[in-house]
Amino acid sequence: MSIQLNNQALWCEFGLIGGDWVSNGSQGFYHVVNPSDGKPIAELPRMGKTEAEGAIHAATKALPEWQAFTAKERALILRRWYEAILEHADDLAKIMTYEQGKPLHEAKAEILYAASFVEWYAEEGKRVHGEILQTSRLDQRHLVLKQPVGVGAGITPWNFPSAMLTRKVAPALAAGCTFILKPAEDTPMSALALARLAIHAGLPRGVLSVLTGSREDAIAIGPILSKSPLVRKLSFTGSAAVGKKLLEQSASTVKKVSLELGGCAPLIVFNDADIKVAVAGTMASKFRNAGQTCVCANRILVQKNIYNRFLEAIESAVSELKVGDGFEEGVTIGPLINKKGLEKVDEHVRDAERKGATLIKGGKPASHIGEQFYEPTILHNVEPSMLVMSEETFGPVLPIMSFDTEEEAIAIANDTPAGLAGYFFTQDAGRLFRVGEALEYGIVVANSGIFSTETIPFGGVKEAGLGREGARQGIEEWCETKFFCVGGL
Ligand code: NAP
């Protein structure tokens, strides 16, 4: 069932609890499948309460040892992990395409992106500083200490199975926290391969555990991680519905919670935009990972005077896309992750048609390729009330509507609780600042469709999340601030 790799040890059909690779699960086994052909590719243990509690115990036990490492010693281990990821990038990309479906070149790009968080936080861990404050009493000194939060837990999605992992694990480890990871049921193999490399890089026993399991198991493991008083921080990336549940569950222990939730990104093209730049940006934002990204353009708003020209240009660009298996040369759109995902995309398209939208391209499953492929689709004459405009579609569907004024576009764009990312295209300097400041999003991108790097603070406002990942802010989330008063001087 496994794929041929240069280093076959990266194919791990085990969970990892407290330094031990575990092949049996208290809940039995489940199959990981290749979304391209629906065939099973791995059999993994289904873990539950016993393993989650075992991982919490191991992470708690490992904490003093890990915190006794200096920041530089932790950095050296992270640096070795980073170098190992680069060395095995081709294998890691293959594993990702095999279980997730994205084209191999996109998988390779994600591995490099994932590695960049490990490199960044290896360095950033050495720059976690406290402060010495001006004292208000001569017999006291006032200090601010930055200390690791303690045991951390992370729950990650399937759409970026490696980058979402390192964006959490690397800052946590660098800050001196230990970590329990629950990857998505669809894409655990990427997580396990990265964990194998981390252990090889010298991570002590118990510092990192990986709990494997199906969705049913996730529902059982979630409350154990979120309600345990020993787990001091939970970091979640996934849907808003599950994020809200975990936030509620975490209230009982008042633990720190970071949430990176879903988006419904607007992409606005103003009359004064450079059409070529706007089309390239729209294509890059919308169709990467077959439209299954939290920051991908979900709804396209184009100003009246430029509408027909934009439509013509985008239609021609969409015609260049090639749907197929991610390993096939030239493929730009892989399968959707599972049947549920495909059904949601199709339901959004049918809803738009029922409510009066016009289908310009695609609009149905690409069943001649496989059960989980969807044709790149363009819909126009859409309205804000349609599902494609009000909910995250998570598929290769481009709904386009026209607007008259800047104020109208901003009002439509801001009319969502999902304030993760928003895009706009303009060459007018005044508008650049007006719109950039008016959009209610954690991430606003002008004149580009691509922006992610390890150096920027990534996260949303409103119901798109809490906290930031990446950049200097990303490690702050794994630190507590302690006021230390030294008196009697
Ligand atoms: P999801 O259904 O919320 O699942 C995310 C993770 O949560 C998976 O590991 C899942 O495990 C687990 N899970 C599911 N139900 C749970 C429960 N009751 N308790 C604890 N854990 C539970 O989301 P998804 O479909 O995998 O991912 C897509 C979503 O993630 C989209 O909304 C996307 O926008 C969002 N996302 C956000 C960002 C960001 O940075 N803001 C980045 C990437 C993705 P199983 O897989 O085993 O069910």
Poorly predicted ranges: none
Mean of residue pLDDT? 97
3D shape = globular
Ligands and ions found: NADP nicotinamide-adenine-dinucleotide phosphate
Largest sheet: 7 strands, mixed
Helix content: 25-40%
Radius of gyration: 23 Å
Protein traits:
binds NADP nicotinamide-adenine-dinucleotide phosphate, 15 helices, 489 residues, seven-stranded mixed β-sheet, six-stranded mixed β-sheet, globular, alpha/beta
Question: What's the gist of this structure?
Answer:
This protein is an alpha/beta fold and about 500 residues long. About 40% of the residues lie in helices and about 20% in strands.
What does this structure look like?
By secondary structure, the chain is α/β, with parallel strands linked by helices. 39% of the residues lie in helices and 21% in strands. The chain is built from 15 helices and 22 strands. It has helices spanning 49-68, 71-87, 89-100, 104-124, 163-175, 188-200, 215-227, 240-250, 275-287, 307-319, 339-354, 387-390, 406-414, 429-438, 471-476; strands at 15-17, 20-22, 29-33, 40-45, 131-133, 141-148, 151-155, 178-182, 208-210, 231-237, 256-260, 265-269, 297-303, 358-361, 377-380, 397-403, 418-419, 421-425, 443-446, 461-462, 465-466, 479-486. The strands form six sheets. A seven-stranded mixed sheet has the order 14-15-16-13-12-18-19, sandwiched between helices. The chain has a six-stranded mixed sheet with strand order 9-8-7-10-11-21, with helices on both faces. α6 links the parallel β8 (178-182) and β9. It binds NADP nicotinamide-adenine-dinucleotide phosphate. Residues 155-160, 164, 182, 184-186, 214-215, 218-219, 222, 237-239, 242, 245-246, 260-263, 294, 392, 420, 460, 465 line the site of NADP nicotinamide-adenine-dinucleotide phosphate (NAP). The site of NADP nicotinamide-adenine-dinucleotide phosphate (NAP) has 31 residues, from α7 and α8.
